[in-house]
Amino acid sequence: MTSASAEKRPIQVAIVEDDQEIREDFARRIDHSPSCRLLRSYGDAESALADLPRRQPDVVLMDINLPGMDGVDCVRELKAKMPKVHFMMLTVYEDGDRLFRSLMAGATGYLLKRTPPDKLLAAIHDVYEGGAPMSPEVARRVVQYFQQLPKPSSDLQTLSAREREVLEQLSKGYLYKEIEDHLRISTGTLRTHIASVYEKLHVHSRTEAVVKYLNRPASP
After folding, report:
1. How buried is residue 215: exposed, middle or buried, by Cβ count under 10 Å (0-12/13-18/19+)?
2. What number of other Cβ atoms are within 10 A of residue 47's Cβ?
3. Are 179 and 166 in contact (CB under 8 A)?
4. Percentage of the chain surpassing pLDDT 90?
């Protein structure tokens, strides 16, 4: 094994999906990626709850509509036991209610199951690196939902022009790599801007920052 390969440990991924065909399809996608490794797959939430805490994956792909306990409640319980693990919800439809319940439960990504293989793998990397990937359709639902909420007070005026650009990109659901390309900045620069945005807005996550941004007062 080379020193480079030793340093680059594959992302350990687990799948919780009741549909065997879909579960096997996701497993094949992950197995074909040299940067990811399928740790375990489960057909229901109960099996995942019983086994996953001792396996400590990096990323869990979680179906929302599971038999018995649903994916949202499963994430909530697993997140309490594995706070450092990243959960990405997968669904066949754009369910607004479950989307927001998932985010509140601790999920940091939300994709449609029809997401192309390359986009799914990119999302796994993004959520592992601290991002919050969403399918464009899901990002639009987030925007629509928060635009209907009462407008809170905001600290947005304290942001620099570049920080506002970063926040605008985050609100559209772009992956970190996509934001770097759009704004032509490095990974380190992006993370510095995001940390500054969190500090100025007094938030601790991408979701909280985007909520404040989407609820900003309308320009005169």
Report:
1. middle
2. 14
3. yes
4. 44
